[in-house]
Amino acid sequence: MEMFEKVNIADCLVIIGLVTALILAIFYALNELAMSIASGLLGYIGGTVKSATTRKDDLK
Q1: What is the rounded CA–CA span in Å between residue 16 and residue 9?
Q2: Tens-place pLDDT, residues 22-57
Q3: Which residues make Cβ contacts (< 8 Å) with residue 26, sequence separation at least 6?
Q4: CA separation for the pair 4, 2 (Å, rounded)
């Protein structure tokens, strides 16, 4: 029984990049950009988690 799944490097790089851009946008008071990045980040994470669970169910 596996407790941890394999880490997808591409997804991690995208998430790290978006979080970095979000922090910089907040730091430089670019509110509209920060809001857009935050919504994109949440959408990307939601889509990644949803597709990962779908693929896991397909394998069983």
Answers
A1: 10
A2: 999 999 999 999 999 999 999 998 888 777 666 666
A3: 34
A4: 6
Query: What is d(CA 43, CA 58) in angstroms, rounded to the nearest whole number?
Result: 22
Length of the chain: 60
pLDDT at residue 10 is higher than 90: no
Radius of gyration of the chain (CA): 15
> DSSP assignment of 30-51, as one string?
-HHHHHHHHHHHHHHHHHHHHH
Question: Is residue 38 within 8 Å of residue 22, measured between CB atoms?
Answer: yes
Residues ≥6 apart with Cβ < 8 Å to 34: 22, 25, 26
| Contact predicate 41/12, CB 8 Å | no
